[in-house]
Structures are given as structure tokens and as C-alpha cells.
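Task: sequence design from structure.
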């Protein structure tokens, strides 16, 4: 990752989120000087470290406390649960389509990490029983604003792109805007809720 970088691999997404939170705390209190801290599914990248070897040794032996309770603003995303894969997800969960919408909208999500495309956040929060497989055949074009599920994650496509996630709804929220600071609406650690809207209100 470069002479001034360190990539820390852990056993699970929960551990990655806890490590990310702990490193942010250390940076805020001044005990860690680093240019960038980037979480992923099971890794955290530290870039701009003065002594990567020292931090590698410390993070290998130090116990990481659990991630603190979620605080801060909750971003609400309006969503119409009208996705073409809603029925398939309902069948996989063993519920009706309306129940998929209810369960999803009742969940508070957290952005675990970002990737795939600018503004695309990987959101966690659904119980493991709601994990769904990717589509056997990916779509060549998924519309911008599509709310989708894959594995343990929920995501929103910030722009039209190919994709193999299960589409359960659509949102009018702008996930990536160059004129906004920061440009990404969703960043690691952000709390998110999906708020159902009907077609009449959305129009």
C-alpha cells in the first residue's frame, strides 16, 4: 500500500467498523497522526503514517473496543418500494412484498464503507436472516437511485451502471454531487433510514 501506509485485515465487518471507529477516536484525541483512514468490508487502510511498522505491531496486539453506539444525524432517504426484484426478495425472506418494505424501512442502517462508484455506500443493519444472493445474471444498466440488496448490504446506485444487486425500490436522493461538500451524501459511519413514499407523493 506504499511506504507510508498500512492495511489492517480483520475477521469480520463488525471488527472492521469497530477498528475504524477506534482509529478515528485516536486521531481526534491526537495519539494517531494519519492522512486518511479508509474502511472496507474486512480491512482498514491507514495512509500517511510516519511509522507504519510501529502501528502494525501495536494494532496486532491491542484489543479493539466495540464500536460505540451510533450518534449523530440520521439521513433519511425517501424510497418507493417498487423494485423489479421485490417479489424475489420477498420469496427469499418468506414474506409478502409489503413486509419487505416494512422491515427495510423499520431498520436503522449504518454506512460500513464506500466503494464501487463515487457516492455508493455499503449499508449494514438488516439481520443475517435477510441476506440475499446477487442476481445470477447482472443487469447491464441499473437506473440511478435504485435501492438494492446483496449479501448483508443495502446500497443505492448513485448513477446508472451495470449491477447484480436485487432492486427493491427507488429514491430521488442525490448520492453524489460535485457542488456539495462533501460530494458524497453517505460516508462511513453515517446513520441512514429509508422513508417510504407512495407514487402520488413522489410525483
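Answer:
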Amino acid at each position: 500500500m506504499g511506504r507510508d501506509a498500512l492495511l489492517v485485515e480483520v475477521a469480520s465487518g463488525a471488527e472492521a467498523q469497530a477498528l475504524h471507529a477506534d482509529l478515528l477516536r485516536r486521531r481526534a484525541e491526537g495519539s494517531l497522526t494519519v492522512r486518511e483512514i479508509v474502511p472496507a468490508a474486512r480491512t482498514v487502510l491507514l495512509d500517511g503514517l510516519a511509522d507504519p511498522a510501529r502501528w502494525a505491531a501495536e494494532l496486532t496486539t491491542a484489543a479493539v473496543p466495540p464500536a460505540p453506539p451510533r450518534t449523530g444525524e440520521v439521513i433519511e432517504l425517501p424510497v418507493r418500494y417498487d423494485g423489479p426484484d421485490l417479489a424475489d426478495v420477498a420469496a427469499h425472506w418468506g414474506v409478502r412484498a409489503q413486509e419487505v418494505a416494512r422491515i427495510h424501512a423499520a431498520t436503522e442502517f449504518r454506512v460500513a464503507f464506500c466503494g464501487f462508484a463515487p457516492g455508493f455506500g455499503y449499508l449494514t443493519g438488516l439481520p443475517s436472516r435477510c441476506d440475499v444472493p446477487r442476481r445470477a445474471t447482472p443487469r447491464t444498466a441499473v437506473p440511478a437511485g435504485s435501492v438494492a440488496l446483496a449479501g448483508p448490504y443495502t446500497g443505492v446506485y448513485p448513477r446508472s451502471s451495470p449491477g447484480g444487486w436485487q432492486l427493491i425500490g427507488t429514491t430521488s436522493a442525490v448520492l453524489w454531487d460535485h457542488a456539495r461538500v462533501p460530494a458524497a451524501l453517505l460516508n462511513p459511519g453515517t446513520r441512514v433510514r429509508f422513508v417510504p413514499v407512495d407514487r402520488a407523493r413522489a410525483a
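The helical segments are 13-29, 52-61, 86-93, 97-105, 199-202.
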